[in-house]
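Hi all, long-time lurker, first post. I run a small reading group and we've been trying to get comfortable going from sequence to structure in the token notation. Rather than ask abstract questions, I figured I'd post a concrete chain and ask someone more experienced to write out its structure so we can walk through it together at our next meeting. Sequence below, copied exactly:
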Amino acid sequence: MATTHHIDAGGQAIRVAKDLRVPMRDGVELAADVYSGTEDRPRPALVALSPYGKELQALALTMPPQRRPSPMWDGCIEAGDIARIVKEDYAHVIGDLRGSGASGGEHIGNYNAGGVSLGQDAYDFIEWVAEQPWCDGNVGMVGISYFGSMQVLAAAERPPHLKAIFVSGGHYDFYETTYHGGVMWFMPRAAREGRGGDSGWAFTDQTKSRMLETYPPDKLQKLVAARLADPDVAAWPNLVHVLNYPKHHEAWFDIVMNELDGDWYEERNPITLAPNIDIPVYLQIDQGRGWTMDGTIELFDALKGPKKLDIGPYPPMQSRPFIEEHDKMFRWYDYWIKGIDNGIMDEPEVSVFVEGSREHVTGSAWPPKDVEYRPLYLRPRRKLSPDAEPMGAEYAAPDGFYQAPLTVTDKVEILDWSTDAFTEPTELIGTGAAHIFAEIDQEDTNFILRLWDNAPNGKRQLVTTGYLKASHRELDDRTTEGNPHHPHTRAVPVEPGRIEEYVVRLYPFATTFLPGHRLTVELSNDEPLADEHNALLPPDSFHLPVGRPVTHKIYRDAAHPSRLVLPFTRRSAG
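-- Answer (accepted) --
Happy to help. Here is the structure in token form:
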């Protein structure tokens, strides 16, 4: 039952309307809370929608923001700074998606791809908000991650009263969110189940599996058996459990069962829907979360209307409750919703924070500067050099490592190669590629690359990452120099003992290597259990380890020029 009361938030009086019922076109009702000033007049509204539960979002009023690695950090408190939004004279409307929280209805699969479109629900929700006496008919949206993805899904439906959106840290192409280079990422499990720093979805009933609803039991049993035949899957207890007991977590079951890209992921891919968006869109993402930077840039390129791309500094994880980026958001909404000419549209479309130099670089596209792709070759004695290796493999013998599965060891083997110290500032902005000539003794493995900026004082900072499952090595026609793309539509087993060239996509980044610093690239087939970067992420932000013992030989001789191909800006001398 809806109730209204006032609260005091740091000396600011806020009117709270709880448990309003918002009707959808199919008769289902969603639940919403509204926070606003106490003056009885209409004002613009900022809508936040997710399955994480509106009650959890209310902690923004009582919990000081937590940064990783605080154990109090909860990745699902993402709807924004309630008190700040009210202070800026907006109504903050926080709603539970169907099948979650206090809302009705059921949720099938991810983004409700097996049920009513979440974009359709967002349309109905936004239009209902615009008609309320406390709203002046102008609506924007707020929130990061899932809340950000909901903004894109909503905008693609073109609700008439949605004037603009501001998206920070959204997730878009759902395959690329859950399989990095074909390697399964566990973060979606954490966000849904509630593990490792996330409360998870606020289910009203278990989210239904699209796979269970689509396939007859005998067919599904065969599909599950085929998935369990993957030794990586068979070695990981959580995956064995969910495949045998899918009712335990049906949404995660669907992800595990769909390890290849295709229609299952593309049906409601926000990037696929982006050409339908005609309202102004501001996209913000911080460095260090390479996969979301890739999707954010891809979304930016697909948009046709007024738009901004803002890439912020490392580290990757914002506070929870989420409070960052609000200054930028209110400038955006003050212009597009309140009609205040604050000059924001006179500024460049693209702004990128460059690590190292700590500069902001602006332009009209990504990357914001002209770049020249240049190689750095893997050389003997763990060197990276702009000069290729002149000797053959009989003299420049391959590097190598044997990785036992993590069921029998805690040690992750890592090879690394480093440049000499840079003698002048050297700026790189864009995507990159790693061409790795490798021989393995199994049908599959992972290639995990991480680039670091090593300072003279021994400290280091992650620059970018790249992932590729060896059986997903095929490239598609989008591939250009330094910018590889893989279709991920089939897995082709590797012939053991054969040397193959693996081209790994290095996610977008922007950094300047200062004099005295070195660039180091690390190669492994699993992730280290803890290091300087992983400590900044939730505990479940790692990838499915390889479940079989694999010996890797990494060739980097005259006939096998293993190398990085990196985006040096024109001002750089190298």
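A couple of things your group might point at:
The mean pLDDT is 93.
The longest strand covers residues 426-440.
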